[in-house]
Amino acid sequence: MKLDFIHDIQRAYRKVVDSMSRPGLITNLKDEAAKVDLEAGCFPSTLVLAAMLLDTEVTFKVVSEKEEETTRWINQLTYAKADAAERADFVFVLYDKAEDELGQILQRVKTGSLIDPHDSATIIVEADAVTDGCDFKLTGPGIEEANYVNVSVNGNWMEVRQQQNAEFPMGVDLIFVAKNHNLLCLPRTTQILSEGRKL
To answer: What are the DSSP E strand ranges found in the chain?
Structure first.
């Protein structure tokens, strides 16, 4: 693989940190993803995220029709071990997921505890598109007033996310990555309003 596991991953890490600390800021992993020459059943940018986030100390779950293939590639790339969605530290919900699979997965993943809120899952979701727009209004820490974005993912995931994040500091963090490698982070502290409704 042409991906530089030091410099390219550091650049990708900085972009994710920027998007996580300023929810609504859309960054792009195109340059890093262009160096991925594996056909692993997922977006190249998803593999960049896997290489950045995973190591031997964490576990992961792949949700996909190509789960076995992608799991094998991620394991070989990072040496992280696969586990069930209920126990995994990172869950990759890939593009070929069923229509409401994200919502179902969000109901099953770990959200931490009041003593150990960090013992929760981060969900990486492949989306049709992630763009600036007016579908969702974001407010909360890291946002001066409000940010507006569009995320093309089907299902009732927003309502389930709200339920899972209701008892702060427990909850789950979401990272969306699109076909064009746009990246958007929704930490558990971010509030989402859709069509005038708070979710």
So the answer is: 27-28, 59-63, 81-82, 90-93, 122-127, 130-139, 147-151, 173-178, 182-186, 191-194, 197-198
